[in-house]
Design goal:
The complex is a heterodimer of chains A (about 350) and B (about 375). By secondary structure, chain A is an all-alpha fold. Helix content of chain A is about 70%, strand content about 0%. The radius of gyration of chain A is 23 Å and the shape is globular. Chain A starts with a helix and ends with a helix. The model of chain A has no long low-confidence stretch (mean pLDDT about 90). With about 375 residues, chain B is α/β, with parallel strands linked by helices. Chain B contains eleven helices and 15 strands. Chain B has helices at about 5-30, 50-65, 80-90, 105-110, 140-155, 170-185, 200-215, 230-235, 265-275, 305-320, 345-350, and strands at about 35-40, 70-75, 95-100, 120-125, 135-140, 160-165, 190-195, 220-225, 240-245, 255-260, 285, 295, 330, 335-340, 360. The chains are: A mainly alpha (about 350), B alpha/beta (about 375). At the A-B interface, helix 3, helix 6, helix 10 and helix 12 of A face helix 1, strand 2 and helix 3 of B.
């Protein structure tokens, strides 16, 4: 049944989507083709597909470690931003801009900053029992404002007409793409490593098992002597590290500089990806590829068929809605319960 | 302006060859009869606002060329990493002229343009130019100066309120000109400012407008992508100044005027030049004289002789007799930035990151 849910959801989406597109006067088959096939029919399309999916998968892997233990890190967007800031800071201000150590240092800085940003809610939750959902979410706004302060103020490009953006990162601080004609770069290997690590941790390690238990049955976990605070720390730090690395890869990859907005919502979209993937490493890979394809397909139908972006978003909503609804109806049975009309009838029925 | 070396050119030609080989040939063959043009908008087209004015420019191309043009429009693209993909795809799909309409499209266009040396790129509000990347921009400050003068005549308190999207030179400069316009008729005028750090946040903008009203401002100008400032001012009985589009119908009859952006000449001009094979990357920066900035009809509440003075001011700015940033200009601390008798240099206007004397608020 767990396998049937996504298939059912896909069929429902295709059917409802076809009706939707037909009612707007577009050939449903051509639209679906432009949505799902055309974006992947060229090398550039494949490169863009993986480039967009990579940060989503990376962040979702980190988040899922926490989600499995009921540690709700909603602030990956902020950890992503801090990772990008720290990595760009190293890239921009390291004394030797041609050093081969630049990228490794940026990697460490990005990961460290993401973890540090996640450590604050982890400490507050572990020691003072604050709600990590609220704290992580609000820390996102602080990170965004901090970025805004830097690019409007001290880090502003001196040669940029006072516009709020930093100078471009030096060449040694940029992840090289595999082929100059395409944008996909070596950060994809980081994502692959993260997926494997996450699978090893959740499916093959005792610590991962303990975290799953504290998520599924907190009381049983406490009874068995598993410390809740350990789950909180590991869950949040894993998410922070993954998001920080994703921020570094975005700054050193497609962006190449900082501006007031650097994330197209990767930190939030990764939450959806984690749940589409059912918090499982390989499910997350599929979820990330799907989200990325939905995004490219949405642009594709705008470009080839002239559909407005609002329509493509509605269609994307269909798919996510059916996916989650199919899950719900597989795990829960709907029973109609008649209200009891009068007590006498109840008595005689007995 | 042109930094492409021969080595760069060879390298990029190779890249273009690779792209063509990867499947661009069929589209090139079709493109010979019909001129393919792409445009990328930063937000969906609404009833009013920034993107609406750009869509009017694109429609003007359609009207001028009819069947001879094939337009592809992609909206709601703000983030640089998405924009780069879109520009690349538009270029490899055979579009010969591609418009970017937001400052955030700049870096992506600079990355994509060298790879497609035969495609003409036009960037609105850009600052960097390449061999095939031109820019166009409006002299907003000419519009705000006239609108500010209208505010100066009509304000009782002498306090103008300004709401800006972001504290970038494109907004800070016009805000200064708004106050300078008001001071040209009322030397004691001041201007309270609030920046939203968003182009589109009606909730925040409403709060900002109410704050300005409670501070005693009785003329409000809002440079964002909504009509909220005009609306809240009108509901509060204050005058308002619209931006980008004529927002009179949102202002409860209290919109003094609006400085309307009309990009038609930029869009149609670039399309005609590309069709004729004469396109060159230019730095187009026009205002009232060229009609890129236009003043919306003045409010009937403005006395006829004042209207005549404002019309005269429009003509004087367009004709170069009056320069909005003519000296003497002092900054907030009172130190002289432009001496009497001279005007602020163009580069300093485009990079303006300081407030003139009388502006109240900080550039954070």
């Amino acid at each position: 049944m767990r396998v049937a849910a996504p298939i059912l959801a896909t069929i429902l989406t295709v059917v409802v989507g076809s009706i939707f597109f037909a009612s707007l006067g577009h050939d449903p088959l051509a639209t679906l083709y432009a949505f799902f096939v055309e974006p992947l029919s060229s090398m550039n399309g494949l490169s863009e597909w993986l480039l967009k999916a990579s940060p989503l998968i990376l962040i979702a892997c980190g988040l899922a470690v926490g989600f499995r233990a009921n540690v709700w890190n909603i602030g990956a967007e902020g950890q992503f931003t801090m990772g990008a800031i720290a990595a760009s800071g190293v890239g921009l201000f390291w004394p030797n801009p041609e050093s081969v150590l630049l990228l490794p240092l940026m990697f460490v800085a990005g990961m460290g900053a993401g973890m540090a940003w996640a450590a604050i809610p982890a400490f507050l939750r572990a020691r003072m029992n604050t709600n990590e959902i609220l704290v992580t979410l609000m820390m996102t706004y602080i990170a965004t404002l901090f970025l805004s302060y830097l690019v409007h103020g001290p880090w502003r490009d001196p040669a940029g007409f006072n516009y709020p953006q930093t100078a471009l990162l030096p060449a040694a601080a940029l992840l090289q793409s595999f082929d100059p004609a395409y944008r996909l770069n070596s950060s994809i290997f980081i994502t692959v490593a993260a997926v494997i690590l996450m699978w090893l941790f959740t499916d093959r390690s005792f610590l991962g098992y303990k975290m799953s238990v504290s998520g599924a049955a907190p009381l049983a976990a406490r009874y068995a002597g598993f410390r809740e605070s350990a789950a909180v720390w590991i869950g949040l730090l894993a998410g922070g590290a993954a998001a920080g690395i994703a921020g570094m890869a975005e700054a050193a990859g497609p962006l190449g500089q900082l501006s007031p907005q650097i994330s197209p919502g990767y930190g939030f979209a990764a939450i959806i990806v984690a749940f589409i993937g059912r918090l499982n490493a390989f499910g997350i890979v599929l979820g990330g590829l799907l989200m990325s394809l939905l995004f490219l397909g949405g642009e594709g139908v705008q470009m080839t068929l002239g559909l407005p972006s609002a329509m493509t978003r509605i269609f994307q909503g269909f798919l996510l809605f059916f996916l989650l609804a199919a899950d719900f109806f597989i795990f829960y049975r709907v029973r109609l319960v008649r209200p009891i009309r009068d007590a006498h009838a109840l008595e005689t029925a007995r | 302006m042109n930094d492409v070396t021969r080595r760069d050119f060879l390298r990029y030609s190779g890249a273009v060859g690779a792209v063509l080989g990867a499947g661009g040939l069929s589209t090139i063959a079709q493109a010979q009869e019909v001129l393919k043009i792409g445009a990328v908008y930063v937000s969906p087209v609404a009833e009013i606002g920034w993107t609406k004015q750009h869509s009017l420019g694109v429609e003007a191309i359609k009207a001028a060329f009819g069947d001879k043009v094939e337009l592809t429009v992609i909206d709601n693209i703000f983030m640089p990493q998405d924009a780069e993909r879109i520009f690349r795809e538009l270029a490899s799909a055979g579009n010969k002229l591609i418009f970017g309409t937001s400052f955030s499209h700049g870096t992506p266009m600079q990355k994509v343009a060298p790879r497609f040396p035969k495609v003409a790129f036009e960037h609105c509000s850009g600052i960097v130019h390449l061999a095939n990347l031109g820019t166009f921009e409006a002299k907003y400050y000419e519009g705000t100066f006239v609108a500010g003068a209208a505010g100066g005549y009509m304000s009782k308190s002498g306090k103008i309120g300004f709401i800006g999207g972001f504290p970038i030179p494109d907004i800070v400069g016009p805000a200064n000109a708004l106050l300078l316009g008001a001071q040209s008729v009322n030397p004691n005028a001041t201007c309270n400012t609030i920046f939203l750090n968003s182009w589109f946040d009606p909730g925040k903008e409403k709060e900002a407008a109410k704050t300005l009203l409670s501070q005693g401002c009785d003329v409000i100008c809002s440079m964002t992508d909504t009509a909220t400032g005009v609306q809240v001012a009108g509901e509060g009985g204050a005058w308002s100044i619209g931006y980008a589009s004529d927002m009179a119908k949102f202002g409860s009859g209290k919109q003094l005027t609006a400085f309307v952006l009309d990009w038609t000449s930029d869009y149609v001009g670039a399309a005609k030049a590309v069709a004729a094979g004469t396109w060159k990357p230019e730095v187009r920066w026009d205002g009232l004289a060229a009609g890129v900035v236009k003043m919306a009809p003045y409010n009937d509440g403005i006395p006829a002789d004042t209207k005549a003075k404002l019309k005269q001011l429009e003509a004087d700015i367009g004709g170069g007799k009056v320069h909005p940033y003519g000296g003497e200009l002092k900054d907030q601390d009172g130190s002289v930035k432009v001496a009497a008798g001279s005007v602020l240099a163009d580069d300093d206007i485009r990079g303006m990151n300081w407030f003139v004397k009388g502006m109240i608020g900080k550039l954070s």
